[in-house]
Fold:
Amino acid sequence: MRRVCDMIRRITPANVTVLLCGENGSDKELIARTLHYYSPRKDASFTSLDCAGQLAHLMELELFGLEKEKSSVDRSDFFKKVQGGTIFLDNIEALSLKTQTKLLDVLQNKKIGKVGGSGGNEIDVRIIVASSERLESLVKKGEFYENLYYRLSAIQIDIPSLRNRTEDLPFLIDQILRRDISSTDKVPRRDSKAKEILYGYVWPGNLSELEGVITHTLSSAHNGVITKEYLPTKIVNTFEAGIRSGVITNPREQFKGQRFKALLLGKKKL
Structure:
């Protein structure tokens, strides 16, 4: 995460396309928003779009619009709405090869034409994209446009999974708890068994899963203490099965301290 933060600081001021790579739930959109809000474009729009959220042909229309005379539906130009700002395209691998080609043309020429139209209008947007897949593998399979990959991967930020930075867990859990409780309430403490489970579980869903678990636990816990009994059964059973099988050993030793906390608290701003 230190490398991720350093990378963000270096590239935030630049008007460059960025590729964010990380597993599902690793908060790629949070990093995209950080890149926007600390950039010269911070006063303009930030718009996110999940490329896996629609059918392929509808996604092309969503991005590039449609000449009005070609359809009874007046689709506005997505890029025009974000002029001067930042567009975040999540799950970029879900775009069809045809749409990927059009996106590459936008990146290269800084112009956009609507589907079924001709010519193009100049645009001024910063594009940040994200993928939970390894795009180089999709290129080899012919499922991702090679030239677009090379264009996107020039500046790439790899976000580590939560299981590879378990020393951050105490700080992240505290942050989630502080966010979800009243400002007048004390942050619930975790007993030793709850810590063992929370710090030893592998978190396949990364930050999204952690947030869900802590929110669930907070709604169940009483007397200001989080115990094993208040944790979701699935988490407890998975952890204990890992201990029995030897997959998880000495989970408390994974809790190494406060490197990420010190990094964040030691720097006032990016």
